[in-house]
Amino acid sequence: MEKKLKKRSSGCIKIVLFGPESTGKTTLARLLSEHYDTAWVPEYMRIYLQKKWDETREVCDYNDLIPIAQGQIKLESKVIDKGHDLIFCDTNVLELKVYSEVYYKGEVPELIEKLSSENVYDLYLLTYIDTPWVADDLRDKPNQREEMFSIFKKTLTTYKYPYVVLKGDETSRFKKAVHSIDQLIASKK
C-alpha cells in the first residue's frame, strides 16, 4: 500500500502553496493555474474534513490523518498522470504533518512522516499571515497565526526545501509567485 502512495515521478514541475489556514492558498493556486493554463490539485484535507463536519458535526481526529494523506497523494497522482508539465498543489502531506504535530502534541503517523520526506516539490510558496482571517467550519486558530507561520517556515528550513514567502495583497503575492515560478521554469530548460 505504501508503495502505491508514493507520488509518481515525472518531468512535471510541482509547486505547492504552503502555510497556515486562511492565508490565501486556494485563491492563489487557482489564479496561478489559470495564468499558466495548467491544473491545480485541491486540498484534500478540506474536502475530507468538511464532509465529516457536514455529516457528523465532528472535527478532525488522529484517525483521520492517514486517509487524508492517502487522498492528497491520490489527487496529486491523478493530475500528474494527465501529463501536465506544471501543476499547483493547494497544500500537501507536509502541511498535514505540521498540523499533526501541532494538534497531537508532536505525534505524527509514521506513514505521514515517510510521505512528507518522499514527496518533494520544486517550489514551496509559503503564504504569510497578512491576509484577513476568515472563519469557517474548519478554521480554529485566529489568535495563533504568527506562531503557526513560524512553525511552517521552520519546517521548510528544517527540510531544506526551496521556498519563497508571499506577503501583501493578492496582486503582490501573485506577481512575486509568477516571478519565482518563471525563474524556476527557466532554470529547468
From TrEMBL:
Superkingdom as given in the UniProt entry: Bacteria
Matching InterPro entries: NAD_biosynth-regulator (IPR052735), NadR/Ttd14_AAA_dom (IPR038727), P-loop_NTPase (IPR027417)
NadR/Ttd14 AAA domain location: 14-172
Designated name of the protein: NadR/Ttd14 AAA domain-containing protein
Protein's organism: Aquimarina addita
